[in-house]
Amino acid sequence: MSALATELEFDRGFDVVPAAPERLAEGVVRLTLRHPDGAALPAWEPGAHVDLVLGPDLVRQYSLCGDPADRSVLQVAVLREPAGRGGSAHVHGLAGGERLRVRGPRNHFELVPSPRYLFVAGGIGITPLVPMLAAAEAAGAGWRLLYGGRTRASMAFAAELRERYGDRVELVPQDERGPLDLDAALAATPGAAVYCCGPEPLLAAVEQRCAPDLLHVERFTAQPDTGPRDAFEVELAQSGRTLGVPADRSILSVLEESGVPVLSSCREGTCGTCETGVLEGVPDHRDSVLTTAEREAGDVMMICVSRCAGARLILDL
Q: Are strands 169-173 and 142-149 parallel, antiparallel or unpaired?
């Protein structure tokens, strides 16, 4: 069996049975997932996420927030978003005991070794950082968490983290203290690896202030696609086929229409499922996953949104 076939087989996922959602904060529930037969669930590391297959056309990505050492469960925390596309409402409406399909885990937000960390969370962006704090603590690293939210009642894990880690956790409810003081936090932790997750304005503010080689971010939403859209060709190295990608189509949609087996999920460049190797050509990156260094290397791309900076790409497909 080819490597791609093996990956596709694995990515069909596995069944889990959720417990009833547990309220963590105002508008936030924790979902604890177990294997139907009590078997061990896949290993994962801090920063990983899973796809929850909530319906035929309802697949959502959620960061894992439990203990990686506990293979008996997977846990995610989900914010109810009234203006969302239905995923969070579905999770909040679960009774417990239903079977769900899970794909992954995958990790595009890995915790790199560092003697010091600054973790910055906005709202539900705390979820991938919770296991990172435990990992940094276990490694003996110095770290600090700056965690903001609309109100104290809306901040999941806030009391638990404060009790466990003390004053290394700075809670900043906006209605009590105003916005996060990013300048002070960065000045107090020079040279630290900075991990940030939260709404786009927070990520943009941190990016403006932090050196790219120190910064690691995870986005929930797609980046605005404002670049030019020209037609180009993709050659599939494994089959030798060449396909045209029109200006108004994505590489992913053209491959799917042509019967090429590829993995995908969000179709917005935020989950990393469709990451594909680039053998020749220059990708025009439009995703929210790859780091600056990975974009400059140009050897992988997210084919659901990214395009070609020239006339032709050769992909490892």
A: parallel
Q: Could you give the count of Cα atoms lying within 13 Å of 284 in the half-sphere of its Cβ?
A: 17
Residues 6+ apart with CB under 8 A from 159: none
Q: Is 202 exposed, middle or buried (0-12, 13-18, 19+ CB in 10 A)?
A: buried
CATH 3.40.50.80 fits 116-218, yes or no: yes
Contact criterion met (CB below 8 Å) for 305 and 276: no
What is residue 4's predicted lDDT score, i.e. its pLDDT? 38
Pick the CATH number of 10-106 from 2.40.30.10, 3.40.50.10810, 3.90.950.20, 3.40.47.10: 2.40.30.10
Q: How far apart are the first and last CA of the chain?
A: 15
Of 30, 12, 15, nearest to 265 by C-alpha is 12
Count Cβ atoms below 10 Å from residue 1 Cβ, excluding itself. Answer: 7
Count of CB atoms situated within 10 Å of the CB of 169: 22
Overall pTM surpassing 0.70 (yes/no): yes
Q: Give strand pairing partners of 147.
A: 121, 171
Residue 1 has pLDDT above 90, yes or no: no
The reported pLDDT for the residue numbered 10 is 42
Q: Selecting from 3.40.50.10610, 3.10.20.30, 3.30.1360.40, 3.40.50.1370, what CATH number does the domain 232-315 have?
A: 3.10.20.30
Residues 206-234, mean pLDDT to the nearest whole number: 87
| Nearest residue to 122 via CA among 18, 55, 201, 20 | 201
